């Protein structure tokens, strides 16, 4: 009826009892918990209120000053020789006419003189 009732009831019951219970339990326990914790601490709560930085104005290049042209020296004009002015002849002063001296009036002679003269 059954030539081999139980020749091999469990041919391979447990060939490898614990080959690899957990092949990769935790290969990288904490690779990168927080890759970028705080890239920008205060990004910009109100981006519209930021003033754009004024671009620096390019400094104007100084224009080279034109070299002053040397002014031509004026040629000295020859001074005209002064003509000798004719000396005015002195006008002869009219000699004042001598005033005639008044003739002295004869003093009235005293009586004694009259007597002596005569």
Summarize the model shown.
With 118 residues, the protein is mostly loops.
The end-to-end span amounts to 250 Å
Classify the secondary structure makeup into a structural class.
Answer: little secondary structure
Please indicate the percent range of residues in DSSP E strands (runs of 2 or more): under 5%
- Counting copies of identical and different chains, the oligomeric state is single chain
Cα radius of gyration in angstroms: 77 Å
Number of helices: 1
* Secondary structure tally: strands: 0
- The average pLDDT value, as a whole number, equals 73
The helix content, as a percent range, equals: under 10%
Low-pLDDT residue spans: none
Give the ordered list of helices and strands. Answer: H
Main sheet record: none
The backbone outline, from C-alpha atoms, is: rod-shaped
Biased composition (Basic residues): 50-108
Region (Disordered): 1-118
Biased composition (Pro residues): 1-46
């Amino acid at each position: 009826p059954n030539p081999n009732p139980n020749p091999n009831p469990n041919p391979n019951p447990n060939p490898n009892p614990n080959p690899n219970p957990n092949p990769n339990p935790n290969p990288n326990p904490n690779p990168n918990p927080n890759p970028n914790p705080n890239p920008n601490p205060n990004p910009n709560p109100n981006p519209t209120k930021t003033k754009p930085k004024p671009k620096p104005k390019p400094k104007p290049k100084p224009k080279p000053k034109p070299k002053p042209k040397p002014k031509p020296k004026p040629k000295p004009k020859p001074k005209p020789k002064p003509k000798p002015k004719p000396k005015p002849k002195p006008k002869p002063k009219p000699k004042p006419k001598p005033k005639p001296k008044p003739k002295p009036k004869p003093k009235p002679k005293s009586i004694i003189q009259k007597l002596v003269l005569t």
